[in-house]
């Protein structure tokens, strides 16, 4: 692997290598070459077919839409689940393997996959939706295992965004 002196050189090189690659191959290229350099933004840009200009725009200055428009995430902010909403929203999730986190208003689930490739594919699909929602999971991955905790920090507890992301993750785990 070449040593790159600037982030721009990394992305230029990636674009040259990625043009003929499959989506799975892109995931591997990105995970090995852009470690710690705004991977989710680059992955998202390539999935959307944005191209070089779009990627450069997405990575500079490594900020999300919320940073460009500080009010954006506040406008989309979901409130903490009410007692009635909690019961109806959590029932299907608790039945599908999610559990309540002790001493915290959060839900947790461990997903197991055939191998690392499936686990990473699941995380990539989830990351794309999470970025669109401006709602990011707390997660940990080792080989074929992905452990996830969901809670909305801005409301200090569970919100409708957690329910939506958990439901998506359940579906994504089955279709990987």
Overall description:
This protein is an alpha+beta fold. It has 2 domains: 7-62, no CATH class; 72-175, 2-Layer Sandwich (Gyrase A, domain 2), CATH 3.30.1360.20. The protein contains 9 helices and 4 strands. α3 (39-47) packs across α8 (116-133). The radius of gyration is 18 Å and the shape is globular. Residues 18-67 and 69-75 have low confidence and may be disordered.
Key traits:
single chain; 176 residues; alpha+beta; Gyrase A, domain 2; 2 domains; 4-stranded antiparallel β-sheet; 9 helices; 4 strands; 11% strand; globular; lyase; EC 4.2.1.96
SSE order, one letter for each helix or strand: HHHHHHHEEHEEH
> Main β-sheet, in a few words?
4 strands, antiparallel
Number of helices: 9
Corresponding CATH superfamily of the largest domain: Transcriptional coactivator/pterin dehydratase
CATH architecture of the largest domain: 2-Layer Sandwich
Strand content: 5-15%
Break the fold down into its secondary structure elements and pairings.
Elements: H1 7-18, H2 23-33, H3 39-47, H4 51-59, H5 65-68, H6 72-76, H7 83-95, E1 99-100, E2 107-112, H8 116-133, E3 138-142, E4 145-150, H9 160-175
Antiparallel strand pairs: 1-2, 2-4, 3-4
Task: Characterize this entry briefly.
The chain has 176 residues and is of the alpha+beta class. It has helices at residues 7-18, 23-33, 39-47, 51-59, 65-68, 72-76, 83-95, 116-133, 160-175, and strands at 99-100, 107-112, 138-142, 145-150. It folds into two domains: 7-62, no CATH class; 72-175, 2-Layer Sandwich (Gyrase A, domain 2), CATH 3.30.1360.
